[in-house]
């Protein structure tokens, strides 16, 4: 191995450590036992492995229910994004229609608006509609963030499926709908699943809107933010750890689609 | 089995006209090739027959029934696509049986039919595989099998061989001809490859700029091109064209004196490279050789006559050097005449 | 075929309707909210909210802090991600694993990232343990208080760089994959050095991806607030955390809306700048 190669590989290793070490350290805080959190100086190896900090955290009144609310909002966000976004993506990919460019532009532009500007007035509207302080309300708000993404990604998914597949299905006896269900959908499904997972993560991670739109039925992020200043460190670390686990898992699941999704959603 | 009638079909994409009022009749059981360069409208015409594209005006009749307003699935036809469009998420057997499944055929019938066409196209060993595991040639066979499995009245093929490499293309061409002759299906075959069209078709329709410029048997198209375009598009090397002045109803070329079919100031003489024979000096006309390409079966000579480029197909043992001046003359009766302005073939007296 | 003409509109209608109700309406409402104040005869058009926002003690700090972070973090992330993307091209074995590790932070929320770095940077945290061991500090040391503004800023920058470089990386790697290897090889054959290949071939061809990454990152950096709250509490006001405080703690929706409008205007201006500065002429596509 040449020196150059050695320097290069250590660069790669350092950058991997840069991502992984902080994750290891918060895991240490979360499962290293409660004493470790308050000890000084800190040990870089777990003195014990225990779930006591995590269970203590989950047993705090409100944590478990807010986790459930988070899941509920995220699942709703996922469903809405896919149900609304996939048909629109299909239209963008397969039909040349007046307004297609404008529609794509509107969807792209939504990225330039901060979530704060959407969430604030929705507080008032949601109170009026009875959606305030419900997971459904949070899910709807998060759909507004995830939907543009779902539209663009599914458009690129459908674009990647040759039109001839569909035309062959029509020639061999399918109607528009059966061709979609039998030929296009099965081919697009892995990508759509990845998009759905991404919508879930977007909702699971969102803090601002979730906090502003809830009072008693807080999602996990909203709960953690609201108790940030008064809760002990081990609660915060356990909370951070619980927040991170599903995200990391999901990124692992969609890793194959990550680049295809972003690569084409760019253009 | 059915006859196809295309009646004054026109197609415009916005301001761009893809097809100018095309009319055409394909007889029951006939193999018709639509030949032309890319952008000539041949694929558009095929897709209109399939119902994948809607014509701006005109009618399409299949088996005497006006199908102009019917969706593809109700036209009783099958199609082989350029990139095969073999569904990647279905096995070969499922692909071949797809059309029958869609029409609600019973399982036993589907199984019988799949087995039969699989045998015909020699894809039985792959029936349980997925298309991703097949080579291009094998996928091509699956696409043809899928089309034949439904025993269509009409078979449409859109450049089905263009994605194969040269050797495989030659092999599939012969096999396709054998299989389709046996099936006796009315076939419309789109291609830009004139050798494919010549080899496969009963008749060829040459399209140019949205119009059918000639429709005839392959040999007639080759021998008597209706326009200068057809002559230069069909055949390899393309037909030679010499623009010559007309004097007293004749043109003079070297020691040749030929009767011109027109009294216009100039006329275009068309002659194929293999219809030019090398003669003794003093006969025929002088041909200055610039490039010599030995092709094995023959030697291709490129050079000029009165400053105009022509190609001569000489015997393989003929090896002139670049710079040599040969004398060549056209074979009796193998000269075509075209109008210098329009490029249209002129009636000749010496044919 | 009337229904095929109608089909695309039917397909986009649900999402368009949804975005109108949950995007456009709130947008207009926020702007309206920001420009209205309770007068004697009910709500009236006014700039009172903006006056109150500008008069607030934290406003100037929030503006300065936000820009400081964006100006430091965004270029830092772009360079880091470009470097990582280029390195990835030369990884032969284990590329998928390296790529996965580097993109993990993509799934981590800014709140969680803040908590991760809190564990490291807090008084009795891991950083101080290391510094103590090295003899740089003696005993626990506070880095995240208002007395150490530079350290706090550095902490937030590091946490942001850790969390959000991944998104830039993913966009750039996706862009790099679209650039055929032959271009670089051609340049190589004609005598370009690796650095010239990078600056003359890769960077210009990556411009669309860089543009997307910069727009997305800048907009999101202006939105950052949970990472700041978890690390610095209210010691380090930024624009969105101020909007949050006015809405949530002070229950003053008007001033919160004014902050949101300011963030929106800045975000749109930044997007516009990127669109113009990094546009690819159509004939070069």
TrEMBL record, chain A:
GO terms for cellular component: plasma membrane. InterPro entries: BP-dep_ABC_trans_perm, MetI-like, MetI-like_sf. It is found in: Cell membrane. Belongs to the binding-protein-dependent transport system permease family. Residues 67-254 form the ABC transmembrane type-1 domain. It comes from Limobrevibacterium gyesilva. One of its GO terms (biological process) is transmembrane transport. This is Carbohydrate ABC transporter permease. It is a multi-pass membrane protein. Its main location: membrane. Keywords: Cell membrane, Membrane, Transmembrane, Transmembrane helix, Transport. The chain crosses the membrane at residues 6-31, 73-93, 105-127, 139-158, 179-204, 233-254. SUPFAM superfamilies: MetI-like.
UniProtKB/TrEMBL annotation, chain B:
It comes from Limobrevibacterium gyesilva. This is ABC transporter ATP-binding protein. Keywords: ATP-binding, Cell membrane, Membrane, Nucleotide-binding, Transport. Belongs to the ABC transporter superfamily. One of its GO terms (cellular component) is ATP-binding cassette (ABC) transporter complex, substrate-binding subunit-containing. SMART domains: AAA. Gene3D superfamilies: Nucleic acid-binding proteins (2.40.50.140), P-loop containing nucleotide triphosphate hydrolases (3.40.50.300). The keyword Transport applies. The keyword Zinc does not apply. Residues 4-234 form the ABC transporter domain. One of its GO terms (molecular function) is ATP binding. It holds the Pfam family ABC_tran.
UniProtKB/TrEMBL annotation, chain C:
Its main location: membrane. GO terms for cellular component: plasma membrane. Keywords: Cell membrane, Membrane, Transmembrane, Transmembrane helix, Transport. Coiled coil: none annotated. It is found in: Cell membrane. It is a multi-pass membrane protein. GO terms for biological process: transmembrane transport. Residues 63-274 form the ABC transmembrane type-1 domain. Gene3D superfamilies: MetI-like (1.10.3720.10). Belongs to the binding-protein-dependent transport system permease family. This is Sugar ABC transporter permease.
